[in-house]
Amino acid sequence: MATVLLAGVPKSPNLGDGLIARTLTHIIHMHGSHKVIHFDITQGEVEEGIAERAAQPSLPRINDAGLKKRATPDSLRMMKAYWIHRKKDATVGEPLKELVAQSDAVFLGGGHLLIDTYLTFPLAVKRVADEARRQRKPLHIVLVGARGPWSSPARHWFRRACKYATTITLRDEESRKFLLDKDPSLAGKTFALSDPALFTRETFEAALSGVREAAAAADREFGSVPAYGASGRGKGSRRSAASSSAAASPAAASAGRRASALFDANAVDADAGGRVSAYRSNPGGIRVVASATAERRIVGLGIMDPNELKRASEHRWERETCADWWRDAAATLLAQDCEVRVFTNGAATDNGFVEEYVKPRCEGLPHVSFYPYPSTVDALYRQIAECDAVIAQRLHACLPSAAMLKPTYAIVWDKKLSDIFTDLGLADKLVDFRIPAAQAVAAMKLTADPNQAFIHTMQRKKKEIYEQIGRMLP
Questions:
Q1: Which residue, 244, 333, 350, is CA-closest to 297?
Q2: For position 466, what pLDDT does the model report?
Q3: Where is each Polysaccharide pyruvyl transferase domain found (predicted)?
Q4: Which of 15, 46, 146, 147 is 20 to 30 A from 195, comparing alpha carbons?
Q5: Residues 71, 64 contacting (CB under 8 angstroms)
Q6: CB atoms < 10 A from the CB of 292, how many?
Q7: CATH topology identical between 2-197+459-472 and 279-449
Q8: Contact 304/298 with Cβ under 8 angstroms?
């Protein structure tokens, strides 16, 4: 059994990062029997399983926006990050060395890793890449986002990691353009695919559908497609023992048909009238189809602290104005006979913003409820799955909803969100928060069937991701 070290940020309180780790693990397991070890590059913690675990939700704690924080020079923040990572080297370096030694390949990625967060990510990426290089283990940078500006040290460390990597797969075309602008010599091994969260539905249905056997059949069917980049598999010709044993089983043949449907743009559930239905899950995780005759459609509002814009965007949205926008959105949905459920991706500052600003404004509004702040990826998935439509800010609230074929509208706040939605053919689902909420919500088609062009684009990109991961595996 080959071992893959998947180095990312799975323990981030923003559960979108855990969702990335979960779906990437599932895609790897779709190619047969592999051991996946998760390593958090910022916390230095190891976790061999990424399934749901008991955890307390992040306490609502709104980020400080005071003068002291705004006045802190970037150079001091970079110096602080540098010395924190120097201190971590003693405790993180030895376990990382042992993990790389145990692994047949190192996958570095998932999330927006090629970004200069005051040197935090550049230093963490450098540590993993340097250890893979030292031990001469293959390194793949997997489905990451890239964005500037990069400081001089960050540029040096990122380019060094990218030069050693066998392949670099990015989540959107703009990230690819940005990276190649920094180093055109990387063009031959750098590809723009999409985000692994497109596999959300399959990942959480795996326990019911026997997806490992299903995916072994998918590996046989799609493994010979010409490669996107360097591969140790000889253009996908390797056949795993799991694939061979699955081929001999009638149950696996049936599972294989289900696996093929993962990449069939026409394989979506429909009711007797031919209308594509939204997927929902009960608390036990069993998928059911949302009833078209429900008295009120459930619309989920995925809310983020607008102060996050200051870290990642030129846009500014003051907390008071933002909270008013969401209250007005809820009121407009209520006028359309919808039920409103508010959720977050679990980050403490998002929870704090909802607690301090949104809840008081929605007090007294009928049919508006607030989900418990999620502490696990499974809880976040269940909350999104229970909604018939979603309006959200975080990328990994929007993408899982879209992947489940729900009407999904994304509030534009970060270029990566708009770039990925545009790549998927969902540019018409991007919402400018500067438009009054009542006007924006009134223009949304929250009962519309999924766009067929989007379904075909999503399935094509999923197939590309599946095949490329297969070629990277040892």
A1: 333
A2: 95
A3: 14-208, 318-414
A4: 46
A5: no
A6: 13
A7: yes
A8: no
Residue 115, helix vs strand vs coil? coil
Which tokens hold the place of 80?
A: 């602080």
Amino acid at 281: S
CATH of domain 279-449: 3.40.50.2000
Chain segment 320-350, per-residue pLDDT in tens: 999 999 999 999 999 999 999 999 999 999 9
Fold adopted by 2-197+459-472? Rossmann fold (3.40.50)
Residue 240 C-beta-side C-alpha neighbours within 13 Å? 25
Give dist(CA 182, CA 159) in Å, integer: 8
Please count the other Cβ atoms lying within 10 Å of the Cβ belonging to residue 134.
10
Q: Which position has the token pair 């072994």? A: 216
Half-sphere exposure of 366 (CA within 13 A, CB side): 6
Domain boundaries, the chain: 2-197+459-472, 279-449
CA–CA dist 12, 93 (Å, integer)? 20
Distance CA(146)–CA(192), nearest Å, equals 11
Phi, psi of 154 (to 5 degrees): -60, -40
pLDDT category at 422 given cuts 50, 70, 90 is: very high
Is the confidence at residue 405, as pLDDT, over 80?
Answer: yes
> Which one-letter amino acid corresponds to residue 387?
C
